[in-house]
Design a protein that fits this description.
- The protein is of the alpha+beta class.
- It is 31% helix and 22% strand.
- It has two domains: 5-184, putative glycoside hydrolase family protein from bacillus halodurans (Beta-galactosidase, Chain A, domain 5, Distorted Sandwich), CATH 2.70.98; 209-602, Alpha/alpha barrel (Glycosyltransferase), CATH 1.50.10.10.
- Helix 12 (523-535) runs antiparallel to helix 13 (539-550) and helix 13 (539-550) runs antiparallel to helix 14.
- The longest helix has 20 residues, at 399-418.
Length: 609
């Protein structure tokens, strides 16, 4: 059985990511891209579905760390006979993705066990295996792997196994490299010691570009490295997470594929990169965005593959038993075809963010994309949608969606004014901006609750409403805003963490998401809660919430999508980009004063009281 979600660390090369358990087992690796089929899928099944274990045969205690500001992972095993370290990494910017594992004896003599199980296509295909003088070549269909080993290998029940000893000062290097079996010969192994030194330098050079100078810099830098690892370098797309189908409810059906790039991540990802000095990455993301929405930009999808692919057909893999029996295991994501009104506002907000930071033309050359988006928004802003949380229930007039429609019109006006445009469209956008604002305030606010509600006519709450002051829809000291923050704190706060919404329906009409079961506290919404508290002047409370969130990071600084306060464990896909964006932006909001992202986004230059 796979370990706890928080027991995993990651290695990556900006094309794909692997998950390494504390036990020394690599249980998840999709290659050659982060959204490709998995060669190691035991995370969602058993070792027979693919993994690569290197660990002592004896019982051991484990400590681990990243060597510095990089993705070179050191796992140190303490055994009765001595200590041994396994150094795991993936060299960036190689033609063929590869995993390297260096075993170093630190003291005494330790007997080690190696077990390699390759199963392409998420554990379903066993490759043909051919021995070489220094390892193996494994091929099935389009996929090939070249395995280099300095120790003798044996075959056992369609697995590759080895037993070897490592003494103090001894070093043994292993590598596994993917290649396209129909297009090239198995590549020769590269020297692991040279590769680890190049990897250290690469990450060191990249982190040197960080200009963040606020509090919590260690947490911020680790989160930025994680975001970089989740970025598909050839295109600049940022994945929501490295995994699929890690459950939001253990044993339940809320299991989704997050290995894609969501447009709504645009503004927060851009802010996290820009506030930290990484303008090149922000510009690459912006260029990816423009390519992804090509054609008729007004009819864009909410998410795309990391190469810009639009067809993300959702299917279920019935041969995988799921993480802790959480089924179905899904690849693809049917929500790609949903109508989510808020995405218009997110893209327009990203366009304004880009324009005010010197690379707006990368998103919108000659206004083509902006005009197409706005023409479509004019047609659909008053329609119900599936909302930010991609519900599988009926479409609603979600309040947050309408707020983000307002953001779309508001940012379009701001962009026109920034560029000195004064055409009749701008007057139309101003008119619609006011109409949307009036509608939200009249139909999305409950005087009885003293709060905005999840959708028009509802009595439910939704954590996305915390964004109302953060996007500048209303000032932070408006009683409707402070009432909403308080109501969410009373209703959705669970042992210090904010849930997205109430998943347990009180009536047929309140069955919002159409799914059985419940879920954990969504971490990014708790970051939004901290941001909203800070913007409304409740800074001490905001810091307390932020410290609580930072305390959830595992021993190597990583966060999943959700947290179960009752069980005290992480839930959902891992590591989650949104959670790490939350660390960067909330840290900046609490420590960078006038340069705080929420001030730049909302237009608020003073806190309310």
């Amino acid at each position: 059985m796979a370990g706890l979600i928080e027991d995993y660390a990651i290695i990556g090369d900006t094309t794909t990511v692997a998950l390494v358990d504390r036990s020394g087992s690599i249980d998840w690796w999709c290659t050659p891209r982060i959204d490709s089929g998995a060669a190691f899928a035991s995370l969602l099944g058993t070792p027979e579905h693919g993994r690569w274990l290197i660990a002592p045969t004896a019982d051991s205690t484990v400590t681990r760390r990243y060597e510095g500001d990089n993705l070179v992972l050191e796992t140190l095993f303490h055994t009765p006979s001595g200590d041994v370290a396994v150094i795991d990494f993936m060299p960036p910017e190689q033609d063929n993705p590869s995993i390297h594992r260096i075993v170093e004896g630190r003291s005494g003599v330790v007997t080690m066990h190696l077990e390699l199980v390759v199963r392409f296509d998420f554990g379903s295909i066993t490759p043909w295996v051919r021995a070489t003088g220094d390892g193996l070549v494994m091929v099935a269909g389009p996929d090939g792997l070249r395995f280099h080993s300095p120790v003798r290998l044996d075959g056992l029940d369609h697995m590759t196994v080895a037993m070897f000893e490592v003494g103090e000062g001894q070093r043994l290097s292993f590598s596994l490299t993917w290649f396209a079996s129909a297009e090239q010969e198995a590549p020769l192994p590269i020297d692991s010691l040279a590769a680890v030194n190049r990897t250290r330098r690469w990450w060191g050079d990249w982190v040197a570009g960080c200009t963040y100078d606020g509090e919590w810099s260690d947490d911020v830098v680790r989160s930025l490295i994680t975001l970089k690892a989740l970025t598909y370098g050839p295109t600049g797309a940022v994945c929501a997470a490295a995994t699929t189908s890690l459950p939001e409810d253990i044993g339940g059906v809320r299991n989704w594929d997050y290995r894609y790039s969501w447009l709504r991540d645009a503004t927060l990802t851009l802010q996290a990169l820009l506030v930290s000095g990484f303008h090149d990455e922000a510009a690459e993301w912006s260029r990816w965005l423009r390519r992804a929405v090509a054609g008729n930009p007004g009819e864009f999808q909410i998410m795309y593959g990391v190469g810009g692919e639009r067809r993300l057909t959702e299917i279920e893999l019935d041969w995988l038993p799921g993480y802790e029996n959480s089924v179905p295991v899904r690849i693809g994501n049917g929500a790609a075809k949903q109508f989510q009104l808020d995405v218009f506002g997110e893209v327009m907000d990203a366009a304004l963010t880009a324009a005010t930071n010197g690379f707006g033309g990368q998103i919108d050359h000659d206004g083509e994309v902006i005009v197409a988006l706005m023409e479509q928004l004019e047609r659909v802003w008053d329609q119900p949608d599936e909302g930010i949380w991609e519900v599988r229930g009926p479409r609603r007039h979600f309040t947050h969606s309408k707020v983000m429609a307002w953001v779309g019109f508001d940012r379009a006006v701001a962009l026109a004014e920034l560029n000195g445009h004064h055409h009749e469209r701008v007057d139309r956008w101003r008119e619609l901006r006011q109409r949307v604002h009036d509608q939200v305030c009249e139909q999305g606010f409950s005087a009885e609750l003293g709060s905005f509600t999840q959708y028009f006519g509802s009595s439910n709450l939704d954590a996305a409403l915390l964004l109302i002051p953060l996007v500048g829809f209303l000032p932070p000291d408006d009683p409707r805003v402070t009432g909403t923050i308080d109501a969410i704190g009373r209703t959705l706060l669970d042992n210090g963490f904010i849930r997205r919404y109430e998943t347990e329906a009180t009536s047929v009409d309140d069955d919002v998401d159409g799914l059985a079961g419940t879920e954990g506290a969504f971490l990014v919404t708790t970051f939004w809660y901290a941001d909203a508290l800070a913007l409304s002047g409740r800074t001490d409370e905001a810091r307390e919430v932020f410290d609580r969130l930072r305390g959830l990071c595992n021993d190597v600084g990583l966060l999943a999508e959700e947290y179960d306060p009752a069980a005290g464990r992480m839930l959902g896909n891992f590591p989650q980009a949104f959670s790490h964006v939350g660390i960067v932006t909330t840290a900046a909001n609490l420590s960078l004063a006038d340069r705080a992202p929420y001030r730049l986004r909302s237009g608020n230059d003073t806190t309310g009281s």
